[in-house]
Amino acid sequence: MATRRAWVxxxxxxxxxxxxxxxxxxxxxxxxxxxxxxGPVWAVPWAAAALLLAGLPFxxxxxxxxxxxxxxxxxxxxxxxxxxxxxxxGLREGGGTVPGPxxxxxxxxxxxxxxxxxxxxYRLSQEGGGGRGGTGRSGAAIVxxxxxxxxxxxxxxxxxxxxxPFHVVGLVSIGTGQTGRRINGQPILGGLAELASVLSRLRxxxxxxxxxxxxxxxxxxSALAQVMAVAEQEGVRVASAPRLTSLxxxxxxxxxxxxxxxxxALEDLLNxxxxxxxxxxxxxxxxxxxxxxxxxxxxxxxxxARQVAALGPSVLVLVDNGEFALWQIDLELGEAASPVxxxxxxxxxxxxxxxxxxxxRFRPELVFHAAALKHxxxxxxxxxxxxxxxxxxxxxxxxxxxxxxxxxxxxxxxxKAVNPTSVMGASKRxxxxxxxxxxxxxxxxxxxxxxxxxxxxxxxRFGNVLGSTGSVVPLFQRQLAxxxxxxxxxxxxxxxxxxxxxxxxxxxEASVVGTADATQEIRSADAERGVGTSDxxxxxxxxxxxxxxxxxxxxxxxxxxxxxxxLAGLRPDVDIEIRYTGLRPGEKLFEELFHGRExxxxxxxxxxxxxxxxxxDAALVGRAIDEMAVxxxxxxxxxxLALLGRxxxxxxxxxxxxxxxxxxxxxxxx
Length: 670
Fold this sequence. Notes:
single chain, nine-stranded mixed sheet, 24 strands, 44% helix, elongated
């Protein structure tokens, strides 16, 4: 049925173009002063046939009149010129005479006009907006924020809608100097700095839009937050235009459901620049290797599993002590387009014998250790569990991986390990110290070409990830769904944020850098010549350095709460209350990525910095962890925390914070 209808439309195009070509022949004769007579009788059908013949290479007969665009008009012009060139040849061959020397030019012009006019008229009639990109008064009034390609494509997609859901009042440019100009007939009302006055003027003119539609993907961070604040003052909603790839100028949305707006993404307010990652290096690191991920059911662990699976490991072992979370990620990976061989293992990192059994069974070459207790108040309420999981569990995993011959282990750490005020942060710092010590041993061994390299331990430290389990974003979303209030512990509370996908991508990047042995070829060549070598690794890879992800600028939690209210189309402190509840045990106002005495060292890789905190002897740290674990299992929390404090002297336990407390002063920002 569809094919028959298509042939009917093509036949209709051929007939209409033939009639228009015949009319163009007569018009051209009139233009050169040959209005009396038609010439040979067969000249009229030959004029139609010449156009159809000339139009074949340009597919003139299959053009869609409703969506005639620049390329279609160029093809039409080329076909007109070709037809005007062909027609006199056939006319002479048939014994006819060309009306005059200027006839071919007049013929080509007449063809262009008569063929283009009905196409454009039909398109304009179908758009229903007078050709002005949705200026009809049907639908909700909107103002586009952005005066570039995004707005142009949005306007053309809107014009193609049979029943436009919006009408555009005007545009606001990101920069200056564009006011008064037009895009697709729509006026640019002012620049971004003039947004408040533009909306005020539109209100006075009773043309205030219901929504500001952001069409410029580059508008993010503080500039976007300012747009939302101005819109809130005028009671105007802010939304995002569909992605360029989902806008179809030939028929609205790509999904056929009409042009729809999207809410502004919370990630856009972070304004984090895109970091170029070494995907080839990641593939070399993972491809064909046996990889194990602990905490694979968690936010970071599951994203690690996804990205690692896409890099083609020979086997992917997923370890978690939560059955449901483990089942979910295993099922998801099994449904992927190219599923990797997987093993889902229920195991607790606190169980040393179980860890040794798992690692001996699968003998992973690369280990990502993401299993941890990360929620500060929960660990404060259950300190023994935090110590056993974060410190003793890390030791169990590291020792089992080392014994099984793993080439490298990557520890996922946290900014809360810097100048820790919570048991969670201090336990993660102790885990960092153990892995640092093991890595120092491995790098020392690697200086001797006669010794087999030990297991490299790469530690990666970063802040909060948006939407992670137990984080503030899902909490605010639940509170919004209930109608508020949104609870913030302190007006000055700040945290670092990045998306989980970005964080995991940088973890993999750090893994590539941390495991790279830039001197391997040198050592091999020197060994053959009997020449001793020294460790020529970059300085930032020595002495137990810790990778720190560049988290950008910290975000005030109160600002985050207000922006989430605005993203929901509501007004903070009017529709939704922001309530301050006071600092909780273990919390501090400002998280730190670097200790005050450990300067940030650049690595030469975008998004990655290096910290050089103090190190300790692996045997001493290991014994301390064992003693602490014994005390924790015996229920002697006081002794366990005392042992923790000896190993982490910077641990200033903030067990009973007040509203004015500000532990962890002197924040150093990455």
